[in-house]
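Fold this complex.
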Amino acid sequence: MRSLILRTVAPLIVGLMVLFSIFVLLRGHNEPGGGFIGGLIAVAALSIYGIAFGVETVRRAIVFHPLAIAGAGLLLSTLSGLLSMVFHVPFMTGLWVYPVILGEEVPLSSVMTFDIGVYLVVVGAVTSVALSLEERGED
Amino acid sequence: MDVAGLTFLALLLPFLGAIVAPLLTRILGHKAAWVLALVPVAIFLHFAGFSAELARGEVVTGGYVWVPSFNVSFSWLIDGLSLTFILLISGIGALIVLYSGGYLKGHPHQGRFFSFLLMFMGSMLGLVASDSFLMLFVFWELTSITSFLLIGFDHQREAARRAALQALVVTGGGGLFLLAGLIILWNISGITQFSLLSAFGPQVKASPFYLAALVLVLGGAFTKSAQFPFHFWLPNAMEAPTPVSAYLHSATMVKAGVYLLMRLYPVLGGTPAWQVILPVFGAATLVIGALLAVRQTDLKLMLAYTTVSSLGLLVLLTGFGVPYAIEAAALYLVAHSLFKGALFMIAGIIDHETGMRDVTRLGGLRSAMPLTFAIAMAAAISMGGLPPFFGFLAKEEVYTALSAFDMRSITFAALAVAGNALMFAVAFAVALKPFIGKRIETPQAPHEAPVLLWLGPAVLALAGLAAAFLSGPVHSLISSPMASAIAGEARTVSISLEPHLGVPLILSALTVAVGVGFYLWLTRLRAVIAAVIAAIGWGPDRGFDQAMRGLVRLSATVTRRLQNGRLDTYMTATFALLAIVLIAAPFLYGELARAPVFPQDIPLHELAIMAIAAIGLVAVVLAKDRLTAIVSLGIQGFSVAVIFLIYGAPDLAFTQFMIETLAVVILALVMTRLRLSPSDHRPFRETLPDAAIAAACGLGATLFLLKVTEGPFNTALSDFFNQYSKTIAHGANVVNVIIVDFRGTDTLGEIAVVMIAALAILSLVRLRAGSLRHIADNDPDAEEASR
Amino acid sequence: MEPVFALLTGIFLTIAIYLLLSKSIIRMLLGVAILGNAVNLLIFTSGRIMREVPPVIGPGLDVPAGPVANPLPQALILTAIVISFSFFAFLLVLSWRAYSTLGTDNTDEMRVAEPEDATLPPLGY
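Structure:
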């Protein structure tokens, strides 16, 4: 689909969508949202980008192989669970810290890194499927 | 380390040896035998240390708790019976390891052979040392498995594979009988240890389940000890390398069944059933085995059938139930292990040095192999029951037990004389005939065997001689404790080489006289038996083949019937069953839902969205082209998303929106390439049964849901999550908190599934078309070639 | 409200199973996609229906004010949606591959693993 309109608008839309997906991911703990939804929004963004500019462009844009991203996410989630081992509490126990950054108290937790891991797995796995199918469509 | 720890280590040692054996053999070659023989020697020395205690009439028990909840322990019982077996297993084991070093010298898999052999040794030791039922059963089956590995050692020959499988099926199947028998004994007595069981003898014999327990235990013992009509696997097991035949199939493993009978004698023995079944089967095995031995011309097969015969004699004696019978069984068991082990190794030496095992094509070897000849004669004299060897003492004791003047004793004495005379003839046919007479040319020029080969039989033959001369100490250390352990009461064995005139000696002389006659007329006798066997035609060995083929055919037929390869059949069966369960169960159990009360105040937009979902669904079914189908699928999906949104599930709604979008996109991507119409090409009549099943499932699900939602809802879990989501997990969105925190481990598993699915999809997409074509042709060779 | 949902779930399940029972892989794929929705609705309904109040705790509160929709089935369904999508995608690619390799979309003709003229297994040892 080499439509001029799409190609003009796509970068803007895609940028906004990726930004929005991260926003949905981070607010997920307190408002509707989370890693699964955020990840899917990012996938949709990348698919649109792929339709507008071709799969190769997307692959260059995300730098890493999508499955590598998924693998990293799975690793991050597992490590978030394993972190509890250091503190001698059961596997997957949520751990929270409240460092003060720039005068603001920022809540950070192993639960959040776990959700980021979920996000990465969904982005990586579904993107790799969508891209490989789109790729086949071109040839 | 204390004694219990050392005993545990000794029982474990063969398995440790089995682990290092291949490596050791790679480094040292066949000389590794000298190192590996230290394993059984150490075990022999450790357990020999108990003999003084046992001679005083004590028993040694020990062990560790294994599964306390099931009253299962890893515990051992060392009494006269198990000690004799342990000393035979480890003593002969050491000699066999050395012998294998010479016999398989230069074989590419000698290390593997040592490993199997030591594994067997450990299993056999564990079997006879076991105090607990379960432990005995586990080691019992382990001996079957290791025997399978050893018989099939030369696995490139079909005969070896068949023999291995046959031995496994017969002895392993018998093990299942044994397990059932032991479980019955456990149920009757509430005891799982042999050392405690003997006190329950009267209770067991009085139980209505006694006969069932007896028959099941005998099923295990008779298959393992090759009693007629289960004898056929033992001669076939001669496909194994000769060290295996000498060790497993004459000296140790085949005696496991006899061991079991002896071990259970105080509990099961002495009843009329016992005293009928055992002697009858024993005598039948004794005579038939000896006759079949005469029929053979292969050295190993002749010895194998005499082993069957000897096992029959042992079973006969164990079940005979007169004074001296148990003592005779104990003595004969030891004597047989010594001379038969030696004779097998002699047969192996002849085979190894001349390349010929057929007794009719061997002769005049005495000048080339004088030492082997001497050892062979010593063993054969013991087997023939002639003085001054231990076999003579055993034979005298056997005839002492059978020498009463009643019908039963006379009958069985006559059978024993016949069997023993035949065995006598075979013993000398194996040990004498190849060495005397005119020299016959053999495939290899014969020469004396190396030390590794003759050491084992020499030691065994000399042991037979020494045991006869030192009968006093041997009886007090070995025979008497063993007989006492079998009988469950103190027994003393006193027979010695001193002349003692009487009925036993007359029977002995008769045996020798008839035996010499058989030896001289052996060729004619062989022809007669061969003619009889040919006239019968069918035997259990062929029956085994027919049974195995029948099994394969039966399973092929059943598989083809149940798995006809049509996905349609499987799907229909699955969903028809689902429909039956969903509809029939509520009717049968009176759990039918009440007539539902539909709310009257449903807002119009909610009804509309449900109607749209239903329309989307119907449109999918009726779609004539790809675009309609995809769009209709999207419609029902988005309707579900809206329903989620309306009913308080925004997280679900958003996820569903995204998923439906992506599903439509990838469906479109793939379907544009499939160029297939999504509509059903089948005539209406054929789709009717499908529609009925589907409608039944849908109706069932509706009824089920109505019934479920009728009752009150248990909110315990939901209340918990609502209450602690903020206070403990610091999150306001309860759904998200459940996913990433409360049930985080589940989610971890789920994202792993997503990851794996992506990997699978990617590899499917990337598969080269060529490799798929080979799979489609179902041709493994082509796939191999394409690499 | 639950009786209406029970009826809706029944319709979803009927259509899904009807499509799964047809022998064409395309229709079976559509059936799989719908089956996912049917089961999700089943879980959703068993957790009882509550209109328009998502299980989110308001600012400054420690527990939800008043009754909210049941969060448990929602958490179950959320992951189920993603999993069933992965499953659907896998089946989609699998059937595409099967079609391009075997040249048929009829499951009755896909007999590579269990061929029609299967011979007896070897009777030797």
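The CA atoms of residues 64 and 93 of chain C lie 44 Å apart.
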